[in-house]
């Protein structure tokens, strides 16, 4: 009899991939009942691809600049993702806005990390905007992806203090450290089906002591 395959996680990146790396490391270290099956980038030069390759993870590039339209890009991307039959698709610094059709295709499986305490500062340039607005607390949010960009049900948040003498780089680094802590935990909860979603509210059920090697369906 063939051994049952672990549920797959596919991670989408555009650049450095430090959040992807945190997920890959946590998955291995904590022996999740799941595996990172593939890392897909829309940029051929994304530095994160090399780390994934070194870990023996399948990588692919779907270059948005070579596609004739957004729809054509997303069709190619979806085909690439779906080949791995993922239980979870994690956006980790993936810098493309996704159409409602694409998002709906992955409803309940698509998760994102955003570098602010949503609903504050959706969009880009969050650390600069936090400093300029004078907030005392900033942070990171993990949320399920819905067609409304940066507004999906919140799975986890980590607040980070803003210090009087903070530069953008200092604040960015402090937030990133928290991203690397909360994102793997949230992806694990998603793939272990421990998220109960009601409207915009998400209850994260506690992890059960799953035996290493046991497959969660
Ligand atoms: C992270 O700050 C993430 O929250 C944002 O883009 C950055 C990506 O960093 N969406 P990395 O590629 O994961 O290192």
Short structural description:
Helices cover 32% and strands 24% of the residues. It has 217 residues and is an alpha/beta fold. The protein has one domain (8-204): Rossmann fold (3-Layer(aba) Sandwich), CATH 3.40.50.
Question: Describe it for me?
Answer:
39% of the residues are buried. The protein has a single domain (8-204), classed as Rossmann fold. The mean pLDDT is 95. Helix 1 crosses helix 6. The chain has helices at 18-29, 48-54, 70-82, 100-105, 126-133, 168-191; strands at residues 8-13, 35-41, 58-61, 86-91, 110-114, 137-144, 154-161, 195-198, 201-204. The strands form two sheets. A seven-stranded mixed sheet has the order 3-2-1-4-5-6-7, sandwiched between helices. The chain is α/β, with parallel strands linked by helices. Bound molecules: 5-O-phosphono-beta-D-ribofuranosylamine (GRF). 5-O-phosphono-beta-D-ribofuranosylamine binds at residues 13, 15-19, 92-93, 113-115, 176, 179.
Question: What features would you highlight for this structure?
Answer:
24% strand; alpha/beta; 217 residues; seven-stranded mixed beta sheet; binds 5-O-phosphono-beta-D-ribofuranosylamine; 9 strands; Rossmann fold; globular; 6 helices
The end-to-end span amounts to 18 Å
Given the structure, what is the number of helices?
6
Q: Tell me the CATH topology.
A: Rossmann fold
Radius of gyration: 17 Å
How many β-strands, per DSSP?
9
Strand order of the largest sheet: 3-2-1-4-5-6-7
Percentage of residues assigned to helices: 25-40%
Gross CATH architecture: 3-Layer(aba) Sandwich
Bound ligand species = 5-O-phosphono-beta-D-ribofuranosylamine
Mean pLDDT over all positions: 95
Uncertain residue ranges: none
| CATH homologous superfamily title | Formyl transferase, N-terminal domain
Which H/E pattern describes the elements? EHEHEHEHEHEEHEE
Number of domains: 1
The CATH class is: Alpha Beta
């Amino acid at each position: 009899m063939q051994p049952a395959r672990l549920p797959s996680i596919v991670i989408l990146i555009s650049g450095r991939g430090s959040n992807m790396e945190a997920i890959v490391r946590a998955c291995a270290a904590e022996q999740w009942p799941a595996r990172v099956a593939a890392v897909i980038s829309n940029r051929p030069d994304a530095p994160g691809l090399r780390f994934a390759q070194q870990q023996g993870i399948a990588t692919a590039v779907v270059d948005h600049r070579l596609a004739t339209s957004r729809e054509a890009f997303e069709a190619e991307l979806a085909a690439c993702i779906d080949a791995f039959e993922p239980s979870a698709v994690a956006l980790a610094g993936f810098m493309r806005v996704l159409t409602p059709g694409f998002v709906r295709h992955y409803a309940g499986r698509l998760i994102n990390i955003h570098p602010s305490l949503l609903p504050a500062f959706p969009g880009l340039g969050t650390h600069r905007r936090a400093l300029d607005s004078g907030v005392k607390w900033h942070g990171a949010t993990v949320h399920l992806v819905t067609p409304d960009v940066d507004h999906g049900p919140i799975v986890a948040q980590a607040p980070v203090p803003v210090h009087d003498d903070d530069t953008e780089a200092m604040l960015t680094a402090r937030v990133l450290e928290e991203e690397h802590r909360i994102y793997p935990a949230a992806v694990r909860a998603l793939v272990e089906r421990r998220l109960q979603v009601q409207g915009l509210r998400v209850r994260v059920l506690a992890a059960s002591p799953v035996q290493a090697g046991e497959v969660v369906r």
